[in-house]
Amino acid sequence: MAAPETRLTPREPAGAEAVKASAKRIAPRLKALAPEAEQSRRLTREGIDLVRDHGLFKTLQPERSGGHQLTLRTHLDVVSALSEGCVSTGWVVGVAHAHSWLIGHMSRQAQDDVYANNPNAFVAAVVGPRGKAVKRTDGSFQLNGFWPFGSGSDYADWLMLGAEVVDENGQVEDWGDFLIPPGDIDNLDDWHSAGLAGTGSHSLVGTNVTVPPHRFISMPALFQGHSPGRDLHAGTLYKSAAAPVLALALTGSAIGCAKASLADYQESIQGKVMAYTDHVQTEWPPTQMNAANAATRIDAAELLLYRSADTIDNYAVQDTSMPVLERARVRMDCAQAVRFCLEAVDMLFINGGASGLARDKLLQRASRDLHAINMHGLLLLDVNAEAYGRILLGLEPNSPLI
User: pTM for the full model?
Assistant: First the structure.
């Protein structure tokens, strides 16, 4: 079957512009709160409440659960706008969008557990199978594990935690994610990071936690296009390919970070004289070329991500399985986009001069944040290049998460 045609400017659903405008409106306040978030190693309560009160956690949340259920392109724009204010906030919101999308694939009962009494619920997660769950004969699970990188977990109304599923004899049956009330899990205050420092990505620990059957979703089944909640929703968002959605959800904060860095750089070099020279910095050709090269990398990154979002959305619209080559290309484009943003910001950071090293300067924090984003397992450029290259050359992929 021929691939669906990719639209460069897909139609936005009703309400998308208002949601994006809300993100832009609160970004300046989030920018003012960013130093406090970094210092305290978690988002501020005010920042979380701003996002929640403006309905921005609900961008990809199912309509049946009180969400907006918008497009992936809108998701990128919302996360990018928030990240122009505070990258840590954008990161937490971006992954929260992925988590609400995952919950939309769970059973009706699981979705209602989370959203029926609180449509603004915020769900933090560690999706990868870091734990182990024993499936009992009554269908329930006994979950144990240690889950690092629980971004935003200080404020979570629910947690999703990944685990390998074994039977009572220890034989592996499956792996997937479990929906857990945060009171059942210990949240360790152990997030001490040079990048994305304000995300509060603490480690989570669970011991002999009982989970009912309806609060589990099989990730291998989801990657094959099967889930209990897929057909509960109108529209096409929940027909999207899972691995590309999860990768894309990690990228929007990089775009906002890079855009804010370019604006800060343009402002900070005005009237500045190059050290030990007679050059005014804005009139020095290397500065001009540096600005152009950085801006072009940011533009290229955004275009790659928009193409990825549109490609995912368009296969979903046609209810067509996304070919493995296209899925691998999205993974590659996501990794390349955040690398372009990192390259752009580091060019600006270095060219801007040593004054940018001060801890209160935006560019040094942006560089640290983008290094952290580029180090996420799903966004490692070499891993994604290998996978995409293998498939381009007719070989089997090197990862199940394609």
Answer: 0.95
